[in-house]
Amino acid sequence: MTPEDYLEGQILLIDKPLTWTSFQAVNRMKFGLIRELKLPKKFKIGHAGTLDPLASGLLIICTGKFTKRIEELQGQAKEYTGTITVGATTPSYDLETEINEIFPTEHITNELIQETVKQFIGEIDQKPPVFSAIKKDGKRLYESARAGIEVEIKTRKVTVSEFEITRIALPEIDFRIVCSKGTYIRSIAYDFGLALNSGGHLTALRRTKIGNYSVENGVSPEAFIEGLK
Fold first, then answer.
1. Catalytic-labelled residue, pool 15, 52, 94, 191
2. Of 23, 133, 173, 222, which has the highest C-beta tally within 10 A?
3. What is the pLDDT of residues 79-99, one digit of tens each?
């Protein structure tokens, strides 16, 4: 593709590496395009839907006129695969924070897991994690959480259209889930542990699809930049 193609507008499918922030991935792409194709420093580029550093997978990056489609792309259904580890919880509902409580798992059977999945399909009320970027009173929730300030968080309605258990090797439970915009998979992991009369937290997460876009067609930021040379 020519520099003009990127300035005019492209939708780029990136497989975001683990530990990278979405912002880092966009910046890597931006400066790679500026350096390799001599694009102007202020060309339009942005991503459609943040992925946590502890998650890998599909990040849609838009350039040029396609940045106007970011909101539309963010609103599409998303598919994830990942692992819930039962028997313990963390304040962040994932591996960002240390385990704070241990729970029994001896009573958890394959049948109980499959039966519990049914509670999470359809429209559900979900409380976002305290360690999230949602703003309340002008402050991001994770800022209050890290400062030890308790904040009341309201539940929100989200939709889970598919929830499939793909492997059970307790304490690990692997899954595939298709859900609406705004769904926190960390909260599902935490609530799933509760529903099993135990505890749970998210120990792996990968976004595999956004709408009809698949990570199978994505490349790493480094591979993308290498392809520009």
1. 52
2. 173
3. 999 999 999 999 889 998 899
